[in-house]
Amino acid sequence: MDLGLKGKWALVCAASKGLGKGCAKALVAEGVNVVIVARGLDALHETAAELRQLNPEVAVRPVAGDITTDEGRAAALAAAPQVDILINNAGGPPPGDFRDWERDQWIAALDANMLTPIALIRATVDSMAQRGFGRVVNITSAAVKAPIDTLGLSNGARSGLTGFVAGLARQPRLAGRNVTINNLLPGPFDTDRLRKTVQAAAASQGRPIESVWDQRRLAVPAQRYGTPDEFGAACAFLCSAHAGFITGQNWLLDGGLYPGTY
Question: Which Pfam families match (predicted)?
Answer without folding.
Answer: adh_short_C2 (PF13561)
